[in-house]
Write a structure and sequence with these properties.
The protein has 64 residues and is of the alpha+beta class. It has one helix and four strands. The protein is elongated, with a radius of gyration of 13 Å. It starts with 10 loop residues before the first helix and ends with a strand.
């Protein structure tokens, strides 16, 4: 959810977000961890510019 009405969401920024999310998932899978509750609410921006993405809420995560 974007709370800043002046935030401009572009195709380029979307590609950057998806890259970070997919790299995070790839890293978890390399460590044999599955999130099991990946949804928009569990993906957050870590800075005001919205350039750093973090996957949160590993409460249902499982190690294979």
């Amino acid at each position: 959810r974007i709370v800043d009405d002046s935030f401009e969401h572009t195709e380029v920024s979307s590609v950057g977000y998806m890259r970070q999310i997919l790299e995070g998932i790839q890293y978890m899978h390399q460590k044999n961890i599955v999130h099991l509750d990946l949804k928009p609410e569990n993906i957050v921006c870590m800075d005001r510019t919205g350039t750093r993405i973090k996957i949160i809420d590993f409460g249902l995560a499982s190690k294979l």
